[in-house]
Amino acid sequence: MKKTFKIFNYFTKTEVFIWLISIILISVSFLFFDRVNYIIYIVSLIGVTALIFIAKGNPLGQILMLSFCIVYGIISYKSSYYGEMITYFGLTAPMALVSLFSWLKNPYKGKKSEVKVNIIEKKEIILIVFLAILITFVFYFVLKYFSTSNIVVSTFSVTTSFIAVYLTFRRSPFYAIAYAANDVVLIILWGMASFEDLKYLSIVICFLAFLINDIYGFISWNKMYKRQNS
User: Which of 164, 167, 161, 163 lies closest to 118 in space, CA to CA?
Assistant: First the structure.
């Protein structure tokens, strides 16, 4: 009982509210549009839980995100969204692992449950833009080769995912903005899939919940940065 209290005491009322709203949205959408694919439901719950920990700069969020990436990659493969599969298996999952080590090596005042927030310089921003353009160009032809569904949207998903995972690794608050952009792309992508099969509406709702969490994550990390440097 005490451990449960400590866990909930660790989060603010706003964070608990956002998490609960996310859980309710995902659960209701599963009951209305799916009721069969429990793996999609469970991975969605893991995803929003990971994001609330990441919003606090807690490395545990990266461990949960690894689990999400693996299962989401399998779902994407079955839906012929090879861009998503390649992105999450080949980019997001490995970078989540690298980010985990980066966060553990850079704790705030030795506090393992909170990472030290980092602000990247202008030169590195130029590097990110260059790499993002290069990856977009390369992946477009890779996805075209695999006859990926909705290739243009899938390509943009790769671009935003790359920027997001890079900024997460570098401990920048703007990781959340990049992930929010990726959430919008994925809402469009899975929205297209839902026209053929309504069960995918539950994934659309999942990424809508992710969008809410990522917007909060940006606010939270900016507060962390101000607190850590006050």
Answer: 167
- For residue 1, give both structure tokens: 């009982």
pTM over cut 0.85:
yes
Burial class (CB in 10 A: 0-12, 13-18, 19+), 98: middle
Q: How many CB atoms lie within 10 A of CB 134?
A: 11
Strand partners, 111: 108
- pLDDT tens-digit map of 29-66: 888 877 777 888 888 899 999 999 999 999 999 999 98
How far is Cα 190 from Cα 211, in angstroms, rounded to an integer? 14
Classify residue 137 as exposed, middle or buried by CB count within 10 Å of its CB (0-12, 13-18, 19+): exposed
Maximal C-alpha separation, the chain:
55
Spatial distance between the Cα atoms of 143 and 85, rounded to a whole number of angstroms:
10
